[in-house]
Write a structure and sequence with these properties.
By secondary structure, this protein is mostly helical. The chain has helices at residues 2-14, 33-46.
Amino acid sequence: QEQHIKNNLSEWTRGWALNTDINDSWLTSSWKYEYSIFELVRLLKTIDFEKETILFYGW
């Protein structure tokens, strides 16, 4: 548990969990679902569904 907490803290201190730079369009660079949901919400709010489509896939 201690290592798990250290790993999560490391993502926050490196800026991977949440990007606060207003010049970047992405909100996170983390592959963890806990943080990727931020990016999904941003996409859902900014995509023009009359012109674009989202394709979800998993592996």
